Amino acid sequence: MYFPISDTTVNPAYLIGLGFIIGILGGFFGVGGSFLAGPALFLIGLRMNFVVGTDLLHIVGKSIVAARKHNALGNIDMRLACIMVVGTIAGSEAGVQAIEALKRATKVDLVVGVATICVLTLMSFFIFLESWQALKLKGSHKPLSQQTSQEKDRRAFKWISKWTQSLNWGPKLALPHSEIKSISVLAILIVSFVGGVCSGFLGGGAGYIRMPFMVYLLGIPTHIAIGTDLFEVVVSASYGSFRHAMNGNVDVLIALIMQTGAAVGAQIGAVLTQYFNGPRIRMAFAPLPLIGAGMVVYGLVTGHHVK
Amino acid sequence: MSFFLELLIYALLVFAYFGLVLHYFTGDLLDMYEHHRRWFAITALALMIGQAVGLEIISSLLFRLLRLKGK
Lengths: 307, 71
Prior knowledge:
The complex is a heterodimer.
Chain A: E1 2-3, E2 8-9, H1 12-29, H2 34-43, H3 48-72, H4 78-104, H5 108-136, H6 149-152, H7 158-166, E3 172-175, E4 180-184, H8 185-202, H9 207-218, H10 222-246, H11 252-272, H12 278-285, H13 288-302
Antiparallel strand pairs in A: 1-2, 3-4
Helix pairs in contact in A: 1-11, 2-3, 2-13, 3-10, 3-11, 4-8, 4-10, 5-12, 5-13, 7-9, 8-9, 9-10
Chain B: H1 2-24, H2 26-35, H3 37-70
Helix pairs in contact in B: 1-3, 2-3
C-alpha cells in the first residue's frame, strides 16, 4: 500500500502485526515500544524524521488504552505523574529542536541512529545486571498478601534510589502511593527532563529510559512506575507528536493502522503485569532494547530496507 | 471465545478505516499536510485519540455484553 505523505510503500499487515507486538510489550513493560517500533519502521524504508514523528503519534493512541487499564488496576501515582509531565514536555521540546537542527545539517539518520544504539545497549546491560542481582536477593519472610509494594519489588543497587531520596535540592514532597516518604521535586524534574529530551530526539515516549530511571533513581515500585509512565507518555507524546506534525514529520495513516493492532495488544499486556513480580518484569525487559539496537545497526551498516 | 470475537470486531474496524480514512481522506490529509500544517497536526492527534478511545469503548462494551450473557 502506498502512503503519499511519507512517500513510502508498506504492507499494512506488517504495520498491524508490529502494532500488536508493541502493544503487548507496552502494556506489560509500561513503555511506548519505540525501541522496537522505531527501528522496525526504519527498516521498511521510512525516513528517520518520519520514523520519530509517526512512532510518537501511534504511541499516543496505544498509551491511552494501556494507561486506562493500569488506572483501573491502581498502578498510577497521579502526584508523581503531574510533576513529571512538566519536565518531560520541556525536555521533549529541546529534543525536537535538536532534530530540526540535524535535519538542516542533513545528518539526521546517522546521528539519531548512533545515539539510539548507544542508549539502548547501555540500558539493556544495566537492567540485566540489576534484575539478575535482584533475583538472587532473599525476599521478605511475610506472606505475599501482607507485603508492601516495596517489599514485593526487591531490587539490587537500592543505594542509588536511597541517595536520590536523601538529596535536599529545593522543595521536597511525599509520594504515599509509591510509599516514598520524601523526595526532591527537582530530582523528579531532572529525571523527567532527560526522558523528555530522549523522547523528542530519539522518538517514542522514551519509556525505555524513564521507566528504569523511575525504578532505579527515584525508587518507585516497578508496577507503579509502569502505570505512571504510561499516563505521562500520553501527555508528553501528544505534545511531541503535535510538534513533529507541525514540522511535517508525521505520517498519520501509518500511525492509525499501527494503532489498530496496538489497541488489542496493550490490553493483553496490562493484564499480564498482575502475574509477574518486579525483578522478573525487569529481567524480561532487558534484552528488548538490544533487538531495537540490532535493527538500527543493520539498517545503518547495510542500507537495506525490508519491504 | 470473547478474545476472538474482539479480534473479529477489530478486524472489521480495520477494514472500515482502510475504506474511510485511507480511501476518502488521504487526499484531504495530504492537502492539509502540504498547505495547512497546523490543521494537519490537530486532525492527526484528534484521529488518533478518537480511534484509541473508540476502540477501547467498543471492546469494553462487547466484554460486558458477553459477561452478562455468560451469567
